[in-house]
Amino acid sequence: MTALLRYQTDLLLRSQRWLAPLLLYAVFLGVGVRAGEPVLGALGYTAAALLPVTAWVVRICLGQEPPAARGVVAAAAGRERAHLAAVLAAVACAALLGVVAVLGVTAVSDLRGVDPVRAGAAGLLATAVCVLTGAAVGVLTTRPLVRSRGWSLAALVLGSLLALVTTGSPAAYAVTGLVGAARTATVGMPWLALAGALAFAAAAVAVSTGATARRE
Question: pTM (2 decimals)?
């Protein structure tokens, strides 16, 4: 699995397809986060913006191999393992981006009345929730479940929006918790949302991986 992860990450970096979602995330942060604003609200926005970006990166990783190369990798390592490695590589890259963003936003935001370590920890947990939820959206809206590029993109955008606004969504729970805490300066840890996001992501990846074995 380590070799597959290295292979998928190298493909992503060499293709430079990561540049578009990275620029999108930078635009989100540039528009929505201002230096000196309350840290918890800023961290909530930072986590929320990462959800569609993660879904996009997952979509890129699952479709970046030419069919011939995909067939060779599948023959050597198995379709399920190759599919899973692509998802994990995307999640790892998105998570790294999220960690950097949380540290940067925490450093430039207003920390008055809030413990910076606790605020940063809450931001990292909310970021993890949004990364996992975004990964679930990504695997459910691309191959092998959705083959059409146009429908895949439309489903990704709609799925990301619903994941951020639907009551009961782990991402919505974690983000609204952080934004609401900005008014009271009381930091809560979204452990329940993290558990829900883990379950959602695991189920989505299992469905997608199973479909890969049957349909490709």
Answer: 0.93
